Amino acid sequence: MSPPEPERPARSDARRNREKLVAVARAAFAAADGTVALEAVAREAGVGIGTLYRHFPTREALVEAVYAAELDDVTASAPALLAELPPEAALRGWMDRYAKFVETKRGMADSLRASLASGRIATPTTRRRITEAIGAILDAGARAGTLRAGVDPEDVTLMVLGVFLSTSGGQDAERIGRMLDLIVEAVRGPAGR
Question: How far apart, in whole angstroms, are the C-alpha atoms of residue 129 and residue 135?
Fold first, then answer.
């Protein structure tokens, strides 16, 4: 028996097609209140439906790719926010980005539920990444004296998730904003008051 051949890297045109499909799907899912037609995604990306299915054999596979790309953007934004804002403002700005991330999932809700239920999207992994982003901001704030030292980032994660779970599908943006402000106020240090 010969060893399996190593997987070849995707051709550059295949990578570009995949990236275009994910970008178009991100916009379509964010704008949709219901199901997004995959044919429309392919057409808008400038590829045939066969190309879409070669990259994403199921709707759930496309949803998972969009979810992963968006989660990457949100979690990676913490260092950039810290570079331009004081830690308490970076925390609030990051929570706004995360709120937008949560809100844009409405067009993907059924597929996301199926992916979460099947384990293809790992809730603990997602939560760990969110908690790490929050933790980086909290650590910077503790060093600056503007956020309390010793705050468990998992506690803040749970509070933020509670805001989104307790509001009606993100429809009450004003209330969400007030609740996120309260979380920041709860973790402010003496220098941040």
Answer: 10
Structural domain count of the chain: 2
Q: Coil, strand or helix: which one is 188?
A: strand
- The two structure tokens encoding residue 45: 């990306």
Do 67 and 26 form a contact (C-beta atoms < 8 A)? no
Q: Tokens 């934004």 — which residue? A: 77
Location of structure tokens 């949560």: 102
35: domain CATH number?
1.10.10
Rg (CA), the chain: 19
Which mean pLDDT values do the consecutive 10-residue runs of the chain (193 residues) have?
A: 55 89 89 81 95 91 87 93 96 93 67 64 78 96 95 94 75 87 92 64
Q: Taking the model in full, what pTM does it have? A: 0.76
147: its two tokens: 């956020």
Q: Which domain holds residue 181?
A: 59-192
Alpha helices for 46-172 (secondary structure H): 49-55, 59-84, 87-103, 109-118, 123-144, 153-166
- CATH of residue 179's domain is 1.10.357.10
Question: In one letter, which amino acid is 65?
Answer: A
